[in-house]
Protein 1
Amino acid sequence: MSHHALNRVVVRLLHDADFAARLAVDPDDALGGVGLSADERTWVAAVPSAAWRTDPDRPQRVLAALGDEYSASASLAGAHADRFFTSAHFHRAVQERGSLALVFGAHLRDDADACVAALAALEHAMACVRRAPRRPPRCAPDHLRLAPSARVVRLPSGTSALLAALRAKRRPPGIGPGDETLLVERDATTQGLRIEALEPGLAALLHRATEPVPRKDLDAVIRELGDDETEADAVIQGLIADGILI
């Protein structure tokens, strides 16, 4: 309904001074594509631009909260992180009721600095795993998939070491060349996160299971890597027991 769209426009105006300035100059352009009634467009355009800045520290408070979850990438991003509220990521997320935490990660991944982009991709995977449902729906019979509480990410080599160094306040190493594949997993008991480097074979298997796939296809991946049918079954059963495949 249009009043929900209006509320979301207000949130955007409270966080983005550039958007408020555009609204004052050309309301039709600023509100293009937003499902407001004619009266609602008139109401919001009639508000003086200064009224949206009565709490000028609001954006920084929100940014600080988001930075808690992206502590490594945000610490290196500098001005790029500050531009989040002027980004299409922010405006689309608010207008479409998306997760600010997840789109902040997407914004940081756009940073031109390769270290920031790599760290943001890893911290974004961690944010997704934290928000994964505790009781995900099961697959169709004889199908398996990667659990929502686990993510496989391929990143420049050294990304996990860079994250660890920044958390420990050590001098950060560089990243690359080459890449590493990491499994980000939520511990079923503690609900904490684990990050584990994957061997190429296991990485290929879990990549194949990103979407539901017949179990026989996963068995075939393992056999292609040189293991026999008995070992393939043991690998699959172990991943199911660990909650990585469901």
Protein 2
Amino acid sequence: MRQAVFVPCSNGVMRQGKKQSYGSLQAGRGIAAILVVIFHTASFVGGNSKYWHREWLARGLAGLALGVEYFFVLSGAVILLAHMDDIGRPATLPSYLWKRFRRVYPIYWIVLTALIFGYKLRPGIGAEYLTHPWAVVSGYLLVYVHTPALNVTILPVAWTLFHEVLFYAVFILFLIGRKIGLAGLALWCALSIVSLVHPWGLYYALYLFSPLHLLFAEGMLVAWLLRREKVRGATAFLATGACVFLVAMVLAGMAGVISDGVALIAGAGAAFLVLGAARLEEQGKLVVSGGLRFMGDASYSIYLIHYPFFMFMAPVAYKLWLRFPVPIAVPFVLLTLSAIAVGSAMHVYVERPLLKRLRAR
């Protein structure tokens, strides 16, 4: 089963002495998060034999999981845009580490701890995750510290967070020096390409050199292009990206799973989408609504909470449906909207105040 992750991060970039904030980057995060929520709704409604078990639904919507590929590209672009002026400045490392920590860990730890207590209270849901002590340790660190933990995460969707944190670690090389950063990124990508044609037999290598890491590099390339004035054809980039990404979604839906090849096709489409949308926004031809910006801001909370929400609420919804059978679209839509609403509320009442307090320190 595929999951995704959405980590809140600054999306500003200095252009011609002014701070350029791309609303399209925030909107992209929000849209990608919603795609993943819908995918997981389909997984519970269609793919889980305990509930409605509409396999055609889970299979047909499998392509929505490609929201994770979109976000990995987006994350690579955002991190480079936010820290491009810090390249070659080791003194900025403490600030970089603190920003990355406060964005990822505090709200994640809250959800993770609550989920562990939930597993204890409802041992029939997710209890198997707690039988792996190293999975608990790795879960809190977001760093795999023992090979058996590679197959288990306490929060099922948190597997992508491990890759995100790994990318943050690789990016540290750029703060040390531009050449060191480029060399480190090139080596990382080369080993990730090797894993495409010759899968690693070692557990850690599967994590350290996943082909998905190529998507971070694509995002960084997009960020570099955005800093150059000579890039033209924003509409063509956007249209091409949308078509390529749609093709990848269709291929995933036809297969019912996402292969490395489809993931890389989706990543290429996402790169074109991000570049085209940002350029159109710079030209004043694309205006992002406040609602989409909010969904982008709330996307990390929505991501963290939606899967646990489904784990605990799908059994309740299914029992109600057995008593009051309605078209399958009704529980599908209600579960999706409820998960988004709960995640949005957590952003407003927990994540946002927490971030505000941590920024003040």
